[in-house]
Structure formats: C-alpha cells, structure tokens
Amino acid sequence: MLEVLAAVGAEAGALLKQRQETIAVVDGSTGGLISASLLAMPGASAFYLGGGVIYTLKGRRMVLGHAPGSLRGYTSAQEDYALAQARLMRERYGSDWAIAETGASGGSSHPLGVASGTSAIGVVGPDGIEASVRLTTESDDRLANMQAFTSAALILLRDTLAAHSGA
Questions:
Q1: Which of 81, 107, 97 is nearest to 28 (CA)?
Q2: What is the pLDDT of residues 14-46, one digit of tens each?
Q3: Would you list the DSSP string of 113-158?
C-alpha cells in the first residue's frame, strides 16, 4: 500500500517542486504516513520542510508551538480543527503549504470519544487558500483506516495544488 500512497505523494511533490514551494505536515492518526508518502519521492528535500506526529496534547503543543489554551474549543476529527493545526504548522515552519490530519484510527477507544474510522484533514496555502475534508470509514480496522486517511489527505493536497496552480 505504501507504493500507492507514495505515487499520490509524488504527484503532490512534483507540483510543489514545479512551483518551488514548500510544505510542512502534521500527522495525527495517520502516524507519519502522510510524511512518509511525500518523503518517498527522490528529491523531497526541495519541498518538504518538516513535520510531526501529534498524538497527545503535550505533543501538539511541542509540534505546533501554540500558546496554551489557543486551541481550546476545537474537537478532534473536525475540519476546523485540522485547518487550525495546518495554519499553525505553516506559520511555525514558514512553509508555503501545510497539511494536518486529526482523527481516530481505531482498535481502541479515542480519549475524547471520537468514533473509530473518523478523520478530518486540512490544507492551507498561500493567499488564504484552504481546503478540508472529513472522512468516515465506519471501520475499526486501524491499519486500513490509517491508509484511507493518508490517501484522502494526499488526494486533497494534490487536488488543491492542482486547482490553484497559479497561486
């Protein structure tokens, strides 16, 4: 499956390289697969600035560098939360683009009660470009959900880049 994800990641990476733009990544329940899929492309250092896997509130604060309480009121696996994380990551890394995924892969209960197989993805870019999607697989299959969420994230990124090719 990584080959399939890497192929979509390479399409997004090629668009970023062509535009000479950069990206930073927040992986949540994808566990690093978004980053891995982008980094599988030779020459990824031309566009990939960095990323982090956020799995706890402490980790979120460390990766995003946000002020305590600034994300209060957001709920995991919601589009507005994914977009807020992507905005913070873009600012923290000084990247042109950022992508964030937040959700519940399954296999165990989510601490905030989010249903297994639920994910939200946000992409932010230059000139106020934002796109988001919420995905529900209705499955408790952790690995399948991680792959589905990663695929949805990479497709959203690729399609957003393609739709704003003049940005």
A1: 81
A2: 999 999 999 999 999 999 999 999 999 999 999
A3: -PPTTEEEEEEE-GGG-EEEEEEE-----HHHHHHHHHHHHHHHHH
Q: Select from 3.30.70.100, 3.40.50.1400, 3.90.950.20, 3.40.50.10090 the CATH code of 2-163.
A: 3.90.950.20
Query: Is the pTM above the cut of 0.90?
Result: yes
CB 120 within 8 A of CB 132: yes
What is the average pLDDT score of the chain?
Answer: 92
pLDDT at 167 over 60: no
